[in-house]
């Protein structure tokens, strides 16, 4: 049995009550964690997008728990102030027992919370009695839905989403991430809950936003509609490498 504890995420509900937006970014390594933490990001999130963005896998479901733990530990070393959240990888989410076992291992690596995809009230009841916060992920859930698509587009599915979010809060979830949900539906969910709702591709009326680090800084050449791109790191790094190659070539010419 995992020990009952005072939840670390209670401060985010307070931010919601005070109307202060919550910032969340994915992170996969120590130097990026140091940057994000020093800038004051509220939640640093080791997402299973690690699989495709860093490890070169074709799908995030290819990620295993030990790979996730390796990167969680690296990120944790770079954090002094931020809250550390991590995904439960698909391979470790077969049932309640495997999820709780993975949660305990990630707790040992330094996480404050874990994110679980899908409507799983039993999981959040168990997490509520554990030493780790439970965050839900509804709407488009990449582990469970093959192709990215807008969810809860009609009244029936919107009502179901709102009802599921209310049930997950009652079960003990401390926050909910909504992905690819219409703005009006996401806003309704936020207004229906006391816990924070973090959006990605769900409009700006949520209690906070989450972005993928690589999308924010432009480390990938693709640009998603919902990405808040702030710079072009891919171009900057490409230019740096080319300049280095020229430098080496020029130095060799000078010596000759």
Q: What does this protein structure show overall?
A:
Helices cover 44% and strands 15% of the residues. Helix 4 packs parallel to helix 5, helix 6 runs parallel beside helix 7 and helix 7 (155-171) packs parallel to helix 8. The chain has an eight-stranded parallel barrel, surrounded by seven helices. Residues 1-6 have low confidence and may be disordered. The chain is built from ten helices and eight strands. The chain has one domain (10-211): Phosphoenolpyruvate-binding domains (TIM Barrel), CATH 3.20.20. It has 256 residues and is of the alpha/beta class.
CATH architecture: Alpha-Beta Barrel
Q: How many alpha or pi helices?
A: 10
Q: Could you give me the name of the CATH homologous superfamily?
A: Phosphoenolpyruvate-binding domains
Question: What is the string of SSEs from the N terminus onward?
Answer: HEHEHHEHEHEHEHEEHH
Number of strands: 8
- C-alpha Rg, in Å? 20 Å
Question: What's the overall geometry?
Answer: globular
How many independent structural domains? 1
Major β-sheet, in short? Answer: 8 strands, parallel, barrel
Poorly predicted runs: 1-6
- Judged by helices, strands and strand pairing, the structural class is alpha/beta
């Amino acid at each position: 049995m995992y020990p009952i504890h005072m939840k670390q995420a209670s401060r985010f509900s307070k931010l919601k009550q005070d109307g202060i937006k919550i910032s969340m970014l994915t992170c996969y390594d120590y130097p990026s964690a140091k940057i994000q933490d020093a800038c004051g990001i509220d939640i640093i999130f080791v997402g299973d997008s690690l699989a495709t963005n860093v490890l070169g896998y074709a799908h995030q479901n290819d990620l295993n728990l030990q790979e996730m733990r390796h990167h969680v530990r690296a990120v944790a070393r770079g954090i002094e102030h931020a809250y550390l959240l991590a995904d439960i990888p698909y391979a470790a989410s077969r049932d309640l027992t495997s999820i709780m076992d993975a949660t305990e291992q990630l707790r040992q690596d330094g996480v404050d919370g874990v994110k679980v995809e899908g409507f799983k009230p039993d999981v959040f009841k168990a997490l509520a009695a554990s030493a780790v916060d439970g965050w839900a992920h509804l709407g488009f859930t990449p582990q469970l839905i093959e192709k990215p698509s807008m969810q809860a587009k009609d009244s029936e599915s919107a009502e179901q989403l709102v009802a599921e979010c209310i049930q997950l809060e009652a079960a003990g979830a401390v926050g909910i991430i909504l992905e690819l949900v219409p703005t009006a539906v996401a806003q309704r969910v936020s207004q229906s809950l006391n816990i924070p709702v973090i959006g990605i591709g769900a409009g700006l009326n949520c209690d906070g936003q989450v972005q993928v680090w690589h999308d924010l800084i432009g480390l990938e050449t693709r640009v998603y509609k919902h990405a808040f791109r702030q710079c072009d790191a891919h171009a900057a790094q490409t230019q740096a490498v080319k300049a280095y190659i020229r430098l080496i070539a020029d130095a060799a010419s000078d010596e000759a």
